[in-house]
Design the sequence.
């Protein structure tokens, strides 16, 4: 595959997808016999075993375009189950830094998925993978939330909308997502869900919450957490549950 740098000889059908290449080895270390497989562009790949089955860990880079390329080529290379594991910022007041969010669906406020199917088509997670993620979070005793998240293209459009010429639209839509009960915001889920839908693959997404700008805006306690291990452990345990189901 031109971008990811390998073919189907790896033997895996399930993959864990962090955005950050620096997290790949950390995730793979939770598998049996972790080993480096390939590195090309933003795509760093390790392999390991879980319950005797080969599992892949590969970074997608940031945002929808690189995620879509990764998923397209992984599918051609034999991957059928995809679990994104990453970070997010809370939107709903109940979502606090250190919590885990399992994304049942994503608001398509990004551009990549619109080049696959019109925006009226929903970006939703696979039910079996979502149930496995929920079961994993429960078994680990984590404080988790399952529901809709927002997926965007511009990190600074979210955090500094007032200086953007399109800030009026960004602010109005953000307010609408919050009022509608969106749990959190990140940048890759919608592309992952739509591409997997079109390909006929299965996808899920679990995120560690860094902080919540809505809580800060309202003067509420707003702990920050940069520990990604809750989401990582949830993803690995979900793969185990899927293998044994």
Sequence:
């Amino acid at each position: 595959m031109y971008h990811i740098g390998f073919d189907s000889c790896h033997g895996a059908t399930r993959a864990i997808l962090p955005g950050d290449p620096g997290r790949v080895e950390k995730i793979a270390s939770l598998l049996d016999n972790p080993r480096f497989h390939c590195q090309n562009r933003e795509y760093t790949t390790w392999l390991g075993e879980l319950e005797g089955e080969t599992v892949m860990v590969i970074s997608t880079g940031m945002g929808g375009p690189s995620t879509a390329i990764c998923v397209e080529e992984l599918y051609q290379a034999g991957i059928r189950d995809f679990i994104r594991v990453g970070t997010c910022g809370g939107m709903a007041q109940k979502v606090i830094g250190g919590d885990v969010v399992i994304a049942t669906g994503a608001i398509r406020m990004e551009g990549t998925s619109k080049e696959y199917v019109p925006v009226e088509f929903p970006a939703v997670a696979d039910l079996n993978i979502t149930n496995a993620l929920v079961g994993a979070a429960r078994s680990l005793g984590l404080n988790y939330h399952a529901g809709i998240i927002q997926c965007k293209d511009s990190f600074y459009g979210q955090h500094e909308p007032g200086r953007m010429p399109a800030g009026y639209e960004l602010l109005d839509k953000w307010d609408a997502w919050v009022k509608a009960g969106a749990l959190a915001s990140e940048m890759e889920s919608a592309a992952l869900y739509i591409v997997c839908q079109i390909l006929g693959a299965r996808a899920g997404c679990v995120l560690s919450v860094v902080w919540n700008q809505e809580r800060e805006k309202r003067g509420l306690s707003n702990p920050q957490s940069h520990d990604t291990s809750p989401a990582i452990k949830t993803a690995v345990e979900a793969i185990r549950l899927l293998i044994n189901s």
